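tokens incoming
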């Protein structure tokens, strides 16, 4: 049933990993959701269960092109997010962040919609300040392999703040730190999906570098709560605001935890560290806690177990076809 406070909400990138959970949660809250996606890294499977919902609509569209619709709120999550995927076609990655943001900001300006940008901890680059606080300007290599994503997202933040200053748009910028959970694309090369799939297949765990680099992993449900709280915060609250789990682990610790939780026979295999791979990452979430009353609830072990179960049941359900398809998919970039 739609409620009286129901809004028309556009989720760009709604068929992706995070976007599909966001669409689901907004529908549960009684809103009308338009998912706009070009299915570059997103999948129909992520949103199949929503297709028959009377207030859910899907539009295949690339946000690099103008979009004329009516809406009350816009979440911009459209952008490939894993290094493997965003480096596959780096020019398209930058276009998506820059041209795509301009179009959605132009749309927000015309229809007077509130607009939220899914920015990233990558705007801090390989940080010299630890943990990362929102006032830190970052340390990004503007000409490296990660720049299409990092600089694209930095430019998107600039655009959001200029539309805010120049046209008084109601903007929200969330800096999202590494988030994981069921529905992560098995082929996206991110560390959590890679390690779980390798562990379930008893294959070597590919640790890049010596595994001493750190990340802080946020479970998807926690992240979605943070995004919605930010969108619902007062007009004066533009962000940027860090959303992530402050528990920091080395990549080697993560590999060992996944081996333990899956009971796998896998061994760690060290591989070369990719260019500009950040050495340390942990969010300072005091701002999110103070302004939104938000902090993550799901511990790594619990979130990993849910994610492991997801991949296990996807392996088992369609054996042997699914097994082959994941093996094939992990060798192919991108989907
Ligand atoms: P994802 O790749 O699963 O989702 C991105 C979605 O955007 C996909 O459905 C893809 O098809 C769509 N898309 C890409 N380019 C598009 C375009 N030009 N037009 C329309 N749709 C397009 O990634 P995700 O993990 O769900 O990330 C969602 C957003 O959150 C991204 O903007 C990402 O940068 C940001 N983010 C994610 C994380 C994380 O750890 N998952 C961390 C920081 C930031
Ligand atoms: N735009 C859009 N939908 C709208 C309004 C604008 O996609 O409903 C796009 C349009 O392509 C435009 C961009 O947003 O180029 C920026 O709009 P803005 O009004 O800021 O600038 P201008 O139209 O002057 O270029
Ligand atoms: N990583 C790894 N093995 C893998 C995939 C990633 O050791 O199979 C490392 C990667 O080098 C980085 C960290 O894990 O230090 C997180 O990588 P991911 O691609 O998930 O996200 P990033 O934070 O780099 O965007």
């Amino acid at each position: 049933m739609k409620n009286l406070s129901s809004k028309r909400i556009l989720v760009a990138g709604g068929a992706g990993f995070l976007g599909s959970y966001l669409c689901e949660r907004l529908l549960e809250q009684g809103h009308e959701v338009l998912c706009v996606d070009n299915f570059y890294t997103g999948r129909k499977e992520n949103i199949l269960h929503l297709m028959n919902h009377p207030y859910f609509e899907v539009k295949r569209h690339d946000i690099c092109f103008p979009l004329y619709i009516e809406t009350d709120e816009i979440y911009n999550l459209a952008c490939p997010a894993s290094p493997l995927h965003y480096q596959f076609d780096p020019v398209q990655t930058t276009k998506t962040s820059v041209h795509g943001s301009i179009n959605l900001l132009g749309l927000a300006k015309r229809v007077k919609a509130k607009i939220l940008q899914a920015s990233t901890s990558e705007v801090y680059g390989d940080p010299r300040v630890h943990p990362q606080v929102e006032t830190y300007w970052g340390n990004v290599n503007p000409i490296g392999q990660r720049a299409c994503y990092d600089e694209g997202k930095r430019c998107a933040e600039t655009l959001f703040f200029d539309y805010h200053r120049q046209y008084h748009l109601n903007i929200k910028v969330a800096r999202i730190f590494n988030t994981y959970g069921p529905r992560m694309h098995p082929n996206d090369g991110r560390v959590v999906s890679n390690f779980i799939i390798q562990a379930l297949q008893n294959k070597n765990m590919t640790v890049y570098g010596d595994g001493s680099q750190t990340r802080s992993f946020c479970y998807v449900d926690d992240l979605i709560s943070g995004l919605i709280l930010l969108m619902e915060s007062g007009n004066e609250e533009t962000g940027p605001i860090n959303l992530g789990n402050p528990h920091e682990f080395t990549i080697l610790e993560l590999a060992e935890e996944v081996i333990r939780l899956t009971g796998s026979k896998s061994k760690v295999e060290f591989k070369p560290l990719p260019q500009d791979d950040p050495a340390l990452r942990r969010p300072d979430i005091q701002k999110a806690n103070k302004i939104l009353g938000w902090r993550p609830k799901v511990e790594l072990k619990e979130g990993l177990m849910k994610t492991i179960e997801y991949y296990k049941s996807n392996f088992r359900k369609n054996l042997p076809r699914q097994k082959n398809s994941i093996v094939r998919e992990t060798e192919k970039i991108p989907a």
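note: The pocket of uridine-5'-diphosphate (ligand 2) is lined by residues 66-68, 102-103, 106-107, 109-110 (CB under 6 Å).
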